[in-house]
Amino acid sequence: MSESTQVLLKRRSEGVPVPEDFELATAPVPEPADGQLLAETLFVSLDPYLRGRISGRHLSGALQPGDMMSGEAVSRVLVSRSDKFKPGDIVAAMSGWQSHPIIEAAGARRVDPDIAPVSTTLGILGMPGLTAYAGLLRLGEPKPGDTLVVSAASGPVGSMVAQIGKIKGCRVIGIAGSDEKCRWVTETAGMDGCINYKDGDLREAISQYCPEGLDIYFDNVGGDMLQAMMEHLAIGARVVLCGLMAQYNNPGEMPPGPNPAWIIKARATVRGMVVYDHEDLRWQMVSDCARWLADGRIKYIEDITDGLENAPEAFCRLMSGQNFGKALVRVAE
Fold first, then answer.
1. Which tens digits make up the pLDDT trace of 284-320?
2. For the segment 223-266, what is each residue's pLDDT rounded down to a tens digit?
């Protein structure tokens, strides 16, 4: 393989990204050096945090026009210059949006295709899974009987938070953006209820579903939804701040923050979730979630787009809320 197809950032997005913000390019693939792998990408993960990298407001740094789009991918090893991996092994690494990456073996994780489909390494058994697992169990501290409310409850993080909450004995109410997504949350994932925030008054709905207040609120959205939930906290509530979907496309427009009086009145704890802080829980998460998946206690849904050339359009759908499930691009079989 002499060339790798790549997706580059062509220009910084203004508002919701459009496909014209990206461009395809090819780059020569060098021979892997000692400690490196040449691989063929199978799946690329599309994640909302990349919008923050495009705008230069993410803690992992800014992407510049002309840079290859970053992100995690699952790949098949073609050539190995490391004794840790051999040709044919499946690995996960931050190898970006490209067809044939050179990967540092020290930064790659082995993927066992016998545990679950390899795509789940980018979803329920990957970064979204770890975000949900650590965010809820370590920061949210669920107890049996707690009322847990989760925004973006049909998404890869929110759906895992909701289902882990049920496993831990919580009463779980999801929030999603369509009736179809809400049906999946209740009928497939088995939550106790789901609110379509686009249909009716959100504050009235949360009062009806949670008359005694929220013991845990896991926020993936920010904006007005966060403020609405903070008005309904129970005494001793825990709030986990994880995502900013309502604000990613408008980084210069910061909504007013929640009224501190609500936090004080509830004696609430508010904690920020950064997944990189919880790497020590990764293998416990994989073990637990793989077992729950095999037992049928966890369901998942994937939104797969075929072809690396279609990654920009798929990312734009994700950032406009048109996807349903974990957004992936299938690059090769």
1. 999 999 999 999 999 999 999 999 999 999 999 999 8
2. 889 999 999 999 999 999 998 765 655 655 666 677 889 999 99
Cβ(79)–Cβ(32) below 8 Å: yes
Instruction: Give buried/exposed letters for 120-131 (b at 16+ CB in 10 A, else e).
Output: bbbbbbbbbbbb
- H runs (alpha helix) in the chain: 49-55, 127-134, 156-167, 179-183, 202-209, 223-230, 260-266, 282-294, 311-319
**pLDDT for position 42:** 99
177 within 8 A of 196, measured Cβ to Cβ: yes
Q: 52: which residues sit within 8 A by CB, 6+ positions away? A: 58, 244, 248, 251
Q: Domains in the chain, please, with CATH?
A: 3-122+301-330 (3.90.180.10), 127-276 (3.40.50.720)
Per 3-state DSSP, what percentage of the chain is helix, strand, and coil (rounded to 5)? 35, 25, 40
Residue 206 contacts residue 234 (beta carbons within 8 Å): no
Q: What is the pTM of this model?
A: 0.90
